[in-house]
Input
Amino acid sequence: MTLTRKGQATRERILEAAVELIAQRGAAGTSTEDVRKAAGISGSQLYHYFDSKQALIRAVITRQAEAPLVPGQPIMGALDSLDALQAWADAAVENQQLNQGRGDCILTSLAGELSPTDEQTREDLCNAFQRWQGLLYDSLQAMRDRGELRPETDLDEVSMAMLAALQGGSLLSQTLQTAEPMRASMKAALAYVRSFTPES
Output
């Protein structure tokens, strides 16, 4: 669908409303009517851009896959040193603290609500998480290329461990409404990365 500038603005407004509502209520607790009201549009406008709730959720997943790994932090080119990784971990914990443990990782929330029969959404989430892992992989590879990680470092395994720490910490923090799970998981992930430094 080719959109005019006005159409693109309307679609973006719908997505922004959906992202905010899903972050607050989850996908199950967010109806298309809720999104319509929040975006200030008519029902016909909503269905012009998204013909179903699933189509809207898929668009939200695609949008969030392009978002920073931690809100407010750069997504590329900033995680390729131990100092940058520590800052990333600190930002993840701070984000949980500011939101009383609720965080705002919509991909984590959607993955937790995923129906076993919703294969298309699962694939969309899988692609989003793989993209994030790829960004972490590239950062670790830059570190290994500079000799900051040992040559035998398994970048697939380490980047997956880092992503699992971020997502697992987010899910537990949201459930327990405290930032402590995120703090513990990110501390463990960085300790794992440091175990591959030449001096370790």
The radius of gyration is 19 Å.
